[in-house]
Design goal:
mainly alpha; about 85% helix; globular
């Protein structure tokens, strides 16, 4: 047997066991790394605001605390208003469930030609041994686990806020420590990349906020015309959720207003579904590409693909962070190398004409 074979076998097994250990370690710290990534994203997003407050005489710690506290209060108020609306509607349904059941059954019978007896449906719902009551009983047994999940979520939010605070408040010191280990040329590269990340993250938030305002305003007009419950709150809900949760945000945002409207009038709920679908197509092809191209300079196909890739790697958080990450990568890669004049050809003539028109 050649002398190198035993050594190769040892190296192979050492590398294999090392890879298993690294994978297991990554699974153990993946949650912590995700918190750091989200904290870094928030730090890049709020640093321009902190810098402005610092230029006006604020301490960086005080400015960071003010912005984080404002964002936290706004989020709690938004969630509280939507939650109180849903709870009030649920209490109304439970107190007058027979009326809602009768109206829904009548709508189904009249629209689809069915022959359902409302009394039988109410009896099945109120039956202690029925599937509806069994489902309610099963949900009551999960209250404890749901409370633990809520508590865990709150701890994660507090951890993200704490990391974000230190990344922004001690941002100059952190950058000095990093640059002190690098040569001057590399220091400039690191600082330029950092500024680019701040610019693209701010552009992402600006574009999402602008699209959320446009979406909320248009949905408010439509919901007001249709006559759904709490049209302003539902329009704001759809605008924010649909813009800050890519890919699936529109469908998740539409569930709540459709459900609340269905309890009042199934016909109005169908109108809400039709409007949300139509507006989503208009936004995808007309509104969003224009806003995104001006703030992030990212092609719509790249934006869509980055959201899907981010969701596949990091889940919902990755879907949100995919767009600004792709914008940063595209800008960094675009700054490398030398650009040359494009030759005349039919395959590039249309794009060149568009550039001249701009």
């Amino acid at each position: 047997m050649p002398r190198w074979v035993p050594r190769a076998i040892v190296i192979f097994w050492v590398a294999f066991l090392g890879a298993l250990a690294v994978r297991e370690l990554f699974h153990m710290v993946s949650g912590f790394l995700l918190l750091l990534i989200v904290s870094l994203f928030l730090a890049l997003a709020i640093e321009p605001g902190v810098n402005r407050l610092h230029a006006r005489g604020w301490r960086r710690g005080a400015g960071t605390s003010f912005i984080l506290f404002s964002v936290l209060i706004a989020g709690l108020v938004f969630v509280g208003l939507i939650g109180s609306l849903v709870l009030n509607q649920a209490a109304d349904v439970l107190s007058d469930s027979e009326t809602y059941v009768n109206e829904t059954v009548d709508f189904i019978n009249d629209t689809f030609g069915a022959n359902i007896d409302p009394a039988e449906v109410n009896t099945a719902i109120n039956d202690p041994q029925g599937p509806v009551q069994e489902f309610i009983d099963r949900q009551q047994s999960r209250v404890f686990s749901l409370s633990l999940n809520v508590l865990n979520g709150l701890l994660q939010v507090l951890s993200i806020l704490l990391f974000t605070f230190y990344l922004v408040a001690d941002g100059p010191r952190l950058r000095r420590v990093i640059c002190s280990r690098l040569e001057p040329d590399r220091q400039r590269t690191v600082l330029d990349t950092w500024n680019l990340a701040i610019d693209k993250t701010g552009g992402y938030l600006y574009s999402r906020a602008l699209l959320a305002v446009i979406s909320s305003f248009i949905h408010w007009i439509a919901f007001q015309a249709i006559g759904i419950p709490a049209p302003i709150a539902m329009a704001v809900w759809v605008g924010i959720v649909s813009q800050f949760i890519p890919v699936l945000g529109t469908y998740l945002a539409g569930v709540l207003p459709i459900l609340l409207t269905f309890l009042e009038s199934p016909l109005k709920a169908l109108l809400v579904v039709a409007f949300i679908v139509i507006y989503q197509q208009i936004e995808n092809y007309l509104v969003a590409p224009r806003v995104t191209s001006r703030t992030l300079n990212v092609h719509p196909a790249i934006a869509f693909g980055s959201a899907i890739l981010g969701a596949a790697v990091l889940g919902p958080v990755g879907a949100i962070l995919g767009l600004p990450a792709s914008a940063m990568i595209q800008s960094i890669v675009g700054s490398w190398g030398t650009r040359h004049e494009v030759i005349e050809d039919d395959l590039v003539r249309d794009s060149e004409r568009k550039k001249r028109n701009r």
